[in-house]
Amino acid sequence: MNHNWNVYKVFKNGKRAKAPIGQFVCEGDDVEALSFFNESVKENFSGKNRGTDFAILRADLPQERIAEKNNLEEEKNLRNRSIVLGRLLRAEGITHKRRVAAALMLTKETDWKWQWCAAEAGTHKYIGGLSQKFNNHTEAVTWLEDQIASMG
Which stretches of the chain drop beneath a pLDDT of 50? Predict the structure, then answer.
């Protein structure tokens, strides 16, 4: 069965271009399509592009880049973290003349234990605690993850 295959340039840093630079039709699976691309399609490229790395993906399958998929998940996690920490800031009623940010801190003010805190955004100067104190970083991160999970 013939399939359309999208051709993407792969940059020197290993990332794949967002948009395909071309498309070809080939019968067979990934291995056969790659072989066809290298032997028949790539030879028609300019000399400059023949030495470039390419990725091919079947056009009828998702074209999402792995980095994009990871970034979307990371963005979701950061957004949820910001929501939880923002709620904690409001619940504590912390106000300050400068912009306030939430941060995980290990300072003299937290008795050298890990604690989610309100801090000055630019200087990270301690303003107040938002959570209990934790003996290690992992406990503090797990606590925040539990808060995110319970926000449901």
Answer: none
Rounded-to-integer distance, Cα 115 and Cα 105, Å: 5
The answer to whether position 65 is within a domain reads no
SS3 state of residue 21:
coil
DSSP for residue 39? I
Q: What is the pLDDT of residues 107-120, one digit of tens each?
A: 999 999 999 999 99
**In the chain, how many H helices and how many E strands?**
4, 6
CA distance 98 to 151: 28
| Residues 80 and 34 occupy one common structural domain | no
Q: What is the pLDDT of residue 66?
A: 67
The domain containing residue 135 runs over which residues?
Answer: 73-151
Q: Based on the domain organization, do 118 and 77 belong to the same domain?
A: yes
Type of residue at 101: A
Whether 47 is in a domain gets the answer yes
pLDDT at 152: 64
